[in-house]
Structure formats: structure tokens, C-alpha cells
Amino acid sequence: MNENAPRIVVGVDGSPGSRAALRWALRYAEQCGGAVTAVIAWASSTFTEITPMPPALSDEDSVARAEWELRKAVDETSALLATSVPVHREVVSGHAARALLDEAQGADLLVVGNRGHGGFVGALLGSVSQHCVSHAHCPVVVVRPTAR
After folding, report:
1. Which domains does the chain have, with CATH numbers?
2. Which run of H or E residues covers position 77?
């Protein structure tokens, strides 16, 4: 890969919106000779007196699940598109919006999916995509999932 190749960061969580974003990012990277960094974020499921339920998964299980989800999404989508675009995979601990913004530092483009179920059904942008659009230091593309 060329050092000057565009670097495209895409958020992946396995949802239809993130799968659409990954497809878009891979197609774009193929057209411009870029490379993709696919990012999935996981949050520690600790409990407190306020939320006394024990975590459903340990942190180790959460990381393993995130790695599996990311690998599955990237492998299936790359195969579907029959593309050889280089994809670097990042599993990051923390809130999705913050993880994407951190990974997108110095990137040429950030691509996120839109679930549309953030604050209320029918919102134009979800909370993560809205945060990324508002705070990213690079252009952001928000991709809606295709209707079934």
C-alpha cells in the first residue's frame, strides 16, 4: 500500500447500518486506492449500586465477541464485494463515538452507519453518527442501510 493512499475509517458493530457503511467504505477505497480501518468498540459492563445487575459478559468475553463480530463483518463483506482492499481491524474499549473519533485522527474520511433509533425512532441521525458528524476532524459519510 502507498503511504499517500487515502485512509478510510469505518465503524462496524454488525448492525445493518454498519454493514452498509462497510460496503460503502470498501467500494470507495477500491475506487481511490485507499485502505480501510474497520473499528468496533466495546464497553466494559461493570456494575454499581445504581445498576446492581452483574455484567452479562466478562470484559474478556466482550473483547472476544467484538473481535468475532468484526472479523465476521469484514470477511463476509469483503467476500460479497470480491474486493482485495486492505482492511486493518481495530477492537477498541470505550464508547463507540469516542473510539471512532480517536481512530479517525489523521484519516481522510470517516464512514458510519445510521441505525436511526438513537433518541427517538425516525431521527435523521443516530447518536453515534450525530456525534461523529459534529466532532470529527475529517469528512464524515453517514450511510443508511438499504431497505429490505
Report:
1. 7-96+112-143 (3.40.50.620)
2. helix 59-81
